[in-house]
Specification:
By secondary structure, this protein is an alpha+beta fold. The protein has a single domain, classed as Glutaredoxin (3-Layer(aba) Sandwich). Helices cover about 25% and strands about 30% of the residues. InterPro entries: PRX5-like, Redoxin, Thioredoxin-like_sf, Thioredoxin_domain.
Length: about 170
Amino acid sequence: MTVKVGDHVPEGTLTEFIENETAGCALGPNDFKVSELTKGKKILMFALPGAYTPTCSAKHVPSYLESYDAIKAKGVDEIWCVAVNDAFVMGAWGREQGVAGKIRMLGDGAAAWTKAMGLELDLTARNMGVRSQRYAALIEDGVIKALEIEAPGAFEVSSAQSMLKHL
């Protein structure tokens, strides 16, 4: 069952590659509970089929980088990019996209959280396995306040420019 506006995001674990060790975060992949990440925060997240894929690299991530200041001006605490990739891939892709300090690149390597959201996409026939649908959500204190799910192959409603209307 797909989550909807008004639902709490499901519990799950997302993994982020940490470039610089800090108190509580070791260098390398770190696991984070979604409930702890969203508690008391306003998160604008977007999910996509995979790192390094054409639309994701050329349009989706860049749209959020270009709109970063406008998004932050609307009171968003964090911007997340979630994909069914491991933390190493998400970290490398984030470095190449220049997202440092702006977008958290969170991996859902086994698609567990994506499946709990009800937003998985089976691309096995294209040799890509189970991935995430392309979508964006506004999450406030763990509750979904806006959710825009793309039609297959589309990139319209989940862009940063489109999501700004929900802020």
